[in-house]
Design goal:
The complex is a heterodimer of chains A (439) and B (274).
Chain A lengths: L1 E8 L5 H7 L6 H6 L6 E8 L3 E8 L2 H20 L5 H4 L4 E4 L1 H11 L11 H15 L5 H20 L9 H12 L7 E5 L3 H12 L4 E6 L2 H11 L2 E4 L3 H5 L4 E4 L10 H11 L4 E5 L16 E5 H67 L5 H31 L3 H11 L18
Parallel strand pairs in A: 5-6, 5-8, 6-7, 8-9, 9-10
Antiparallel strand pairs in A: 1-3, 1-4, 2-3
Chain B lengths: L1 H25 L7 H26 L7 H23 L3 H17 L16 H37 L4 H5 L3 H34 L7 H23 L4 H19 L13
Helix pairs in contact in B: 1-2, 1-4, 2-3, 3-4, 3-5, 5-7, 5-9, 7-8, 8-9
The chains are: A alpha/beta (439), B mainly alpha (274).
């Protein structure tokens, strides 16, 4: 049994191919159901706008890869009505097996393989893929362990490192900068000058961070009105800006105006009336709306689009820096998984050993009880408990050692020895069912 | 016997405080030593506490009679506050900026006059002295913390203005919270300093039958008191804050440190019998 993965992502496939393989959410159960007809024991389908990947357990890696590639070809045809031949698809596909497949999934779940390094959405998508596959009953013991662990890796990356912490979009970077000036954006007021797309997005982020009142000024009052209505704000004329400057804490400007819409004098006057309480302005317009001289005013913080970009670059560098810590987590977790897989080999032996000793125990207890008919219930319970403890204590170290030897890669030798020592004659041990015994 | 042991504890505590400061500083850049920072600090605190108790037992009096003793107690007080913050709020970021200051105070204290002969003051109320030094020191602790907050405000302000998005930018909180923090600490420190000064004055009255010893330390302390008083007044009346306020707080802190480390040596009554 081998762990294999096959898939494509934004690096290996252009958007035309990716969209052909993006399975819509509603179609996932049907797509998963098809795995039952394939020569795979277990399978999970991970489909997002940036990647489509299948993780499966198959007898033979080569055959499984072939079957899964055909499966992907059919997916494209069935759900997107896109005829793509296997020969056309193959150059975009990458495959991994065994621990490389494990490592790949862990990297994906922790955002290391994402287009935007460290983004957290992918973790939710991995979780959904796992949940859907569990519901479709295509997941068995190995993929359960694999995906549970992948989700844990993603969580560790988020909690133990700062990989997902800093903004990488202009609008969110602006909000984050504002948060370095104000303790909280709760109850703040903001002013949007111009009603462009980025401004809209930023306003949305600001409102989500608790900004209370929001005023929008625009050359054409209709546009201002519509934006104000959309987000529940107030529309004003451009020449009213000066009056509002002293009341608002955050200003976003994005007009197409050729000259400066807000001058140094405007802000100077506003800041004076604010008595040192800072005002935060960002100018995402080109040509700029806000006089660069504003930056020299004590209580004013001015950022233009380049500054925001610089913040984003710094954030990306910070993420790349953190990625090294995440890589370490991945290595660590892959090793844990390797160790788990290795110990799985000895699980049947351990079970056989336990069964044998348990049956001896039961026999002997029954015999003892039949010779001691006068025992009270309490006494019987004590004797019974004693035998259970005895068996558990004796079997404890052989169980641990077996797993330990499996972990060292000498599982066969261990199994051989134990089978002979304890005379475990059951030639073919059926695969272990409960993973609980192994963990 | 304790004579040899106390310096051992003090030295050990100073070494561990230094380790704590270095590891806390490293947290700005990476998190590797978070655990080490936490436990070095806690162990250092325990060691220092034991050392302090032994010092008190050895001397048979509160540790307020030499600059060394006072600094030692002062560092202990500051660290107690930080450990509580770290324990209750799980906020190690504060440590990156506080522990270096505390370590500096403790290490510097090792070089300060240790002798501390208890001045002969007749049967003067010792309680008043302890009160005077203790409460003043608590006030100092609050002012030192506000000094750090003010300095951090200026650093963060510079980061924001120069668009300098380095590790320190990420580690520091917002300008507003630093401003509020500095203000709150002064709100706490000011009444404490006032109380401490009052205790000093009544002590002077009882001892020398005058409230007003013409003493450099007294004069300078009154100056410091005015600096902080003016700050609070401006804050209360005008809602003052921002960069100028941060400068004010920093300069107040510098004045305080000068008062503590320098002016003492020019003073008669505050020399701790050196």
């Amino acid at each position: 049994m081998k762990i294999v993965m096959i898939g494509l992502n934004y690096r290996t496939a252009p958007v035309e191919v990716r969209e052909a393989l993006a399975v819509p959410g509603a179609a996932i159960p049907a797509a998963l159901a098809r795995f039952h007809a394939l020569p795979v024991a277990e399978a999970v389908l991970l489909s997002t706008c940036n990647r489509t990947e299948v993780y499966a357990i198959g007898e033979d890696a080569g055959a499984t890869f072939g079957a899964l590639a055909d499966y992907l070809v059919r997916l494209a045809e069935e759900w997107q009505g896109c005829r793509i031949s296997r020969a056309e698809l193959e150059p975009h596909l990458y495959t991994h097996q065994e621990l490389h497949a494990v490592e790949h999934l862990f990297r994906v779940a922790s955002g290391l393989d994402s287009m935007v390094l460290g983004e957290t959405q992918i973790l939710g998508q991995v979780r959904d893929a796992y949940r859907d596959a569990t519901q479709a009953e295509t997941v068995g013991k190995v993929l359960h362990q694999l995906f549970e662990q992948a989700i844990a890796v993603g969580k560790r990356a988020q909690t133990e490192t700062r990989i997902g912490q800093n903004a990488v979009s202009v609008s969110y970077a602006a909000v984050e900068l504002a948060r370095k000036v104000f303790q909280s954006l709760e109850g703040r007021r903001c002013l949007a000058i111009g009603a462009g797309e980025t401004a809209k997005l930023t306003v949305k982020h600001l409102l989500a961070s608790g900004v209370k009142e929001f005023v929008v000024a625009n050359r054409t009052v209709e546009r201002a009105d519509s934006l104000a209505r959309e987000f529940g704000g107030k529309a004003i004329r451009l020449d009213e800006i000066a009056t509002y400057l002293r009341e608002v804490d955050v200003v976003i400007s994005s007009t197409g105006a050729p000259g400066y819409v807000v001058t140094r004098q405007h802000v100077q006057e506003a800041v004076r009336q604010r008595r040192g309480r800072p005002i935060f302005l960002f100018d995402i317009a080109v040509p700029r709306d806000l006089d660069p001289e504003i930056a020299k005013i004590e209580g004013a913080f001015l950022y233009d689009i380049d500054d925001l970009q610089a913040a984003i670059n710094a954030n990306l560098a910070e993420r790349a820096n953190e990625a090294r810590h995440v890589e370490r987590i991945v290595v660590d977790e892959v090793d844990k998984f390797r160790s788990w897989i290795a110990t799985q080999e000895v699980v049947p032996t351990i079970r056989m050993l336990r069964e044998k000793v348990e049956s001896i125990r039961e026999q002997e207890v029954a015999r003892a009880f039949s010779r001691l008919p006068d025992l009270t219930d309490r006494e019987r319970a004590i004797v019974e408990a004693m035998t259970v403890t005895l068996v558990n204590k004796i079997l404890n170290s052989p169980t641990q050692r077996l797993k330990g030897m499996a972990d060292e890669g000498i599982a066969n030798q261990a199994i051989e020895t134990v089978t002979r020592l304890f005379d475990l004659h059951r030639a073919e041990a059926e695969p272990a069912e409960e993973g609980g015994a192994a963990r | 016997m304790t004579n040899q042991i106390v310096p051992l504890f003090t030295g050990g505590a100073a070494a561990l405080y230094t380790l704590s400061a270095i590891t806390h500083l490293s947290l700005i850049f990476r998190r590797e030593f978070a655990l080490l920072a936490r436990w070095a600090t806690r162990i250092a605190w325990v060691i220092q506490s034991v050392g302090l108790v032994m010092l008190v037992i050895e001397q048979g009096r509160p540790p307020v009679y030499s600059l060394f003793e006072v600094s030692h107690a002062f560092a202990w007080g500051l660290m107690t506050v930080y450990i509580l913050i770290e324990f209750l709020r799980d906020n190690q970021a504060a440590g990156s900026f506080l522990t270096p200051v505390i370590a500096t105070v403790l290490v510097l204290s090792l070089f300060l006059p240790k002798s501390g002969v208890e001045p002969f003051l007749g049967d003067q109320p010792v309680k008043l002295i302890v009160w005077h030094v203790g409460v003043t020191l608590l006030g100092y602790a609050a002012f030192i913390a506000s000094f750090v907050a003010g300095a951090l405000y200026l650093i963060q302000d510079m980061n924001l203005r120069r668009k300098n998005f380095g590790p320190i930018y990420y580690a520091l909180p917002s300008l507003e919270s630093l401003d509020i923090l500095a203000g709150r600490l002064i709100y706490i420190g000011f009444p404490l300093l006032t109380l401490g000064m009052t205790a000093g004055l009544s002590f002077a009255h009882v001892t020398w039958e005058t409230f007003w010893q013409l003493d450099p330390k007294v004069l300078f302390t009154v100056f410091v008191w005015l600096v902080y008083g003016a700050y609070l007044l401006m804050r209360k009346v005008w809602g003052w804050g921002g960069r100028k306020a941060a400068w004010w707080v920093v300069l107040g802190g510098v004045a305080l440190l000068v008062n503590y480390f320098v002016i003492n040596f020019a003073s008669d009554v505050h020399r701790f019998g050196v």
